[in-house]
Amino acid sequence: MKKFQERDPRAINLDATECCALGTGFAHNPETMSQLVNFVDKDKLKSYEDELTDSEHLALIPDDKIQTAYTQIVAAELRRLKGAKITFECVHSLEEHTKALQSVTARFSKPF
Hints:
The chain has a two-stranded antiparallel sheet with strand order 1-2. The chain has five helices and two strands, in the order βαααβαα. The protein has one domain (3-109). The protein is mostly helical. Helix 1 (16-27) packs across helix 4 and helix 1 (16-27) packs across helix 5.
């Protein structure tokens, strides 16, 4: 995302852990991804996922498509993580990913 978006009052700023947790969600929830292509263009979904890869920070100006994609991926990933014993390839713990996803949910739930 462009740097100027960070200053936009509508921007939702994601930190490194949130980017990682969301990126993992995109990568590990193919059923949700296949359903999302009915609402969001496949190339656009791929760009959402690519933006998260190895990002330390991401500033998003939410629209309906971003909100739908991210909230559906977060919900699917939280279901996948619930009660699981997962070791991630990243430096974050299961608890850190869960908290990051919950934080994203809270911010995307607010009207923009």
